Amino acid sequence: MPWAIRGLLGAAALVVLTSCGVSPDEAVRVKEGQTLGDPEAGLQYCTTFGCPYEGQACLEVFFDYGRSPALCLFLDVCERLQCENEGRQCAIFDGFPGQVKCIEPR
Question: Strand ranges (DSSP E) for 1-106?
Answer without folding.
Answer: 28-30, 44-45, 56-63, 66-67, 71-74, 81-83, 89-93, 98-103
